[in-house]
Amino acid sequence: MTQVFINGARDELNVQEHDSLDPSVQELIRAAAEARKQAYCPYSNFAVGAALRTSDGSIYTGCNIENGAYAASICAERTAAVKAISEGKRDFVACAVVAQQDNGFTTPCGVCRQFLSEFVNGKDIPLYAAQPSNLPLRVLCTSVLQLLPNGFRFLNGK
Amino acid sequence: MTQVFINGARDELNVQEHDSLDPSVQELIRAAAEARKQAYCPYSNFAVGAALRTSDGSIYTGCNIENGAYAASICAERTAAVKAISEGKRDFVACAVVAQQDNGFTTPCGVCRQFLSEFVNGKDIPLYAAQPSNLPLRVLCTSVLQLLPNGFRFLNGK
Amino acid sequence: MTQVFINGARDELNVQEHDSLDPSVQELIRAAAEARKQAYCPYSNFAVGAALRTSDGSIYTGCNIENGAYAASICAERTAAVKAISEGKRDFVACAVVAQQDNGFTTPCGVCRQFLSEFVNGKDIPLYAAQPSNLPLRVLCTSVLQLLPNGFRFLNGK
Amino acid sequence: MTQVFINGARDELNVQEHDSLDPSVQELIRAAAEARKQAYCPYSNFAVGAALRTSDGSIYTGCNIENGAYAASICAERTAAVKAISEGKRDFVACAVVAQQDNGFTTPCGVCRQFLSEFVNGKDIPLYAAQPSNLPLRVLCTSVLQLLPNGFRFLNGK
Ligand SMILES: [Zn+2]
Ligand SMILES: [Zn+2]
Ligand SMILES: [Zn+2]
Ligand SMILES: [Zn+2]
């Protein structure tokens, strides 16, 4: 546990050395870094990659895909998620996000936190945020529910 | 060409018999209908499937995936598109959408039209909208640019 | 009627001199240009203003408001619309959009077309797109239904 | 401080009696409850109201406004926010949200948390979530940064 400032918010964050993480997590981070290369981000020039592991061990990856109408853009995390879900896989067991901002880790935006939280069923989804080029590579270890506390759910609706 | 009313808008629409369409288009529609089965739509109970063919002949499919926060939902067309784009395929040559509304064909929403239009490069993308259960199966034959005339593009931004 | 190219799409567009338009339309365009000054667009540096007139003669205005997570951005047209709707006014009779792109008129994005089309009840909404600085000022005269032909509506849902 | 379960997430939440809150907060909650009456929610039948106070003491209110294409819907919190911002007020000092779900408080969705966090400048924004009909009225007292810990910001982009 390390006390750090991330994007202006103070928190007890679990920042760990990449090499100390479970090999399956390291694999997920590598998959996210690789997916990042497909990013379509001509407006921001800010490439993001993501990877989701499902309960059967599969990895689904995504990148951010922007639109001239910014509101129609889709983030890397949601790209990875809809790929899995549309293949019948909704049981996510881990998520990795890779992007490069000098001021700290890039965490999922609120839209993606909301999207992923729909598929947290009883158990949380660990989430790993890494920077591709800051060595030695350090990883922010958090989770979907930690990132969206007291999340909005619409239970009347189902 | 048949003069019909679609969702309240009068237009000259090219509605054709399914069996008269090119076999590659029929294949795309079948792929969309199959993808529809994975829809996650507990709020609307309205399942949509989509399929995109890329210039190398591949087919990418998607379904709609809803969220308790409705604004975070992603449609079938965008699910299919981000799957292709995240695999490095941005050159779409045809799109099919399948859903069942009694009052007419289900066309892509404005968000999806905007999203797809980003990847219309010089040439248009034919789009086929079909209903899964109305026999004999008829198909609305249109295109992304027909559905988003004078589309918004942010050319300053690139 | 003038045949022009707008954002790469050829169409019969009704482009008119500003001074030839109805004074109420000129007033709406001025309101949109004024609202544009409040735009929050640090990411695109692309300011847009919009104005909606409701059936009681009121004008509601909006600007675009961006977010670091691009997908969470809201356009000028929707800003104007939610202001009116949240005040109990849903009966729109005209819309104006003002922005500056050198290559042509800035029309509403697909998200906004979809949003506005929800409130087209039986009759269409005229839409005027103007550039603030190209003199003599010319205005693209179109409508919500022209910009979203065969629009998506979810009639099962109500 | 009370230990409660909200939407499945365990947390130390500050749930207080309505009558014990500062009169300015009570006024904000009443404004949100009043704004809720304008909700346009034919798809979910789930009405939400929101109110934002700006540093000059003004209150801006909003309701949720849905769309047949769910993704194009806009929540009450964002409606209130864009109203203020488009009037030149970006300095929010408090936010209230009012809705009725039997299983707990209705908090802002991730999209709204992301949207509001853009306007947290150095200081946090207190946020009050209330249910209109559960008496004696209790209020969840939290904040934008508590609801979006380690929030995504795109600092390269400005
Ligand atoms: Zn995101
Ligand atoms: Zn759509
Ligand atoms: Zn727009
Ligand atoms: Zn929301």
TrEMBL record, chains A, B, C, D:
Domain CMP/dCMP-type deaminase positions: 23-155
Entry GO terms, CC: cytosol
Keywords noted in UniProt: Hydrolase, Metal-binding, Zinc
InterPro entries documented for this protein: CMP_dCMP_dom, Cyt/Deoxycyt_deaminase, Cyt_deam_tetra, Cytidine_deaminase-like
Catalytic reactions of this protein: 2'-deoxycytidine + H2O + H(+) = 2'-deoxyuridine + NH4(+); cytidine + H2O + H(+) = uridine + NH4(+)
Names of required cofactors: Zn(2+)
Pfam family, one: dCMP_cyt_deam_1
Record-linked SUPFAM superfamilies: Cytidine deaminase-like
Record: residues binding Zn(2+): C75, C109, C112
Single Gene Ontology MF annotation: cytidine deaminase activity
GO biological process: one example: pyrimidine-containing compound metabolic process
Residues that bind substrate: N64, I65, E66, N67, G68, A69, Y70
Catalytic site: E77
Enzyme class, first EC level, given as a word: hydrolase
The enzyme's E.C. designation: 3.5.4.5
NCBIfam families for this protein: cyt_deam_tetra (TIGR01354), PRK05578.1 (NF004064)
Free-text function comment from the UniProt entry: This enzyme scavenges exogenous and endogenous cytidine and 2'-deoxycytidine for UMP synthesis.
Family label: Belongs to the cytidine and deoxycytidylate deaminase family.
Database matches in PANTHER family: CYTIDINE DEAMINASE
Name of this chain's protein: Cytidine deaminase
Species of provenance: Drosophila madeirensis (Fruit fly)
Lineage, top ranks: Eukaryota, Metazoa, Ecdysozoa, Arthropoda, Hexapoda
